[in-house]
Amino acid sequence: MNYEIVESFTQMMREKGIDKDILVSIIEDVFATITRKKFGQDARFDIIVNMDKGDIEIFLEKEIVEKVTDPTTQIDIETVRKLTDEPLEIGDDFVEIVDIKSFGRRLISTARQTLNQKINEVVKELVYNEYTNSIGEIVVGEIYQVRKSEVLIMHNKNELILPRHEQIPREKYRKGETIRVLVKEVKKTSNGAYVIVSRADPKFLAKLFELEIPEIYDGIIEIKAIARDPGERAKIAVESHDDRIDAVGACVGMKGVRIHSIVRELGSENIDVINYSDDPAQFIARALAPAKLKEIKIDKENKKAIVVVSKDQMPLVIGKNGQNIQLASKLVGMDIEVEKEIVEEEYDIDITEFQAELGLPLIERLLEEGYETAKDVIEADVKDLLKIEGLTKQKIKQIKEILSKELEEAEIENEEDEKILLESKSDTNKKENK
Question: Which domains are seen in the chain, by residue range?
Fold first, then answer.
């Protein structure tokens, strides 16, 4: 029985990686507990555990007396003489070897349960310490179970959990496949250490860059910021501490060979690598590239920025479902808002307004040829206008002069009307303030 007990826990020691001395100490403590239960709290004993031989020996010490008053700690001389031929006298200590079978099934079963519990606690502590020291590091494991809400990974005979929210969307996981994950969090539970790993965390991307790009690992290039939409797109800002090395070029590699290996690992995630800048405006401009910005207004106090862009650049700035501007905001650490550039439209008048000056038939012919406003006619080529029936060079010159004069006068009147309106609003505001 001794051998069976020791052998079972020796095997556990090998499987769980428990130190031999720790296991011996646990076994000694457990058998000390059941020895006191059987022989009393005042019992004197020694427990010897020999892991190599697979043996446990318990030596119970009792004082030799003439008449026993406490059976737990005493033994009478007559009994001693029956048990041994050694010349022992009253007052000496008698050492009795206790057969583990004498403890009975109940105490042995208790011992086994206690041993299991204590060993599990040690294993839990070992696993907790191992992975706590590995938080933020990438480990390689094997998928051994795929569930609806999580993927279970085996690493060094320990279970790692990849929850759904830490997975790359649409990424397929298959049992038996090797997988790289980032150790994100370690928790202690009643059932053991709970190790959470991730492939969606921005730190996973940072670690992949560190593994694939020697300059980052060596500290020559520093990752300053990362924003990521896992499986879709990511932005990473880098800075070189060596003027001779281009940070973006080093990260991308010759013909993109370095960045491609990372992209493949992440399921073809699109990665934008940009140069970091201490200047917020320049950093924002780089983060929103290739969009061209007209103006950038920075509010450092509230960590906000307003970018002004032309109408044709709006889709580039915002990106699909707002992804580009959201990632840029995360990258620079500011709330970025977009404003469309206001282009002041030139004043113009519909050609139909000149019916009195040009006559209805001519107006109709101009409209048929696509000349809808005064400026359309003024800016038109004389050769094109000559194609219209009834027009000559002299007639075209007169028409253009009439339209230009009327347009100029109308524009001046419009500006004066706007000025009066603004003055009126200003007076109203002043009265309201008073």
Answer: 2-128 (3.30.1480), 134-198 (2.40.50.140), 214-247+269-340 (3.30.300.20), 351-428 (1.10.150.20)
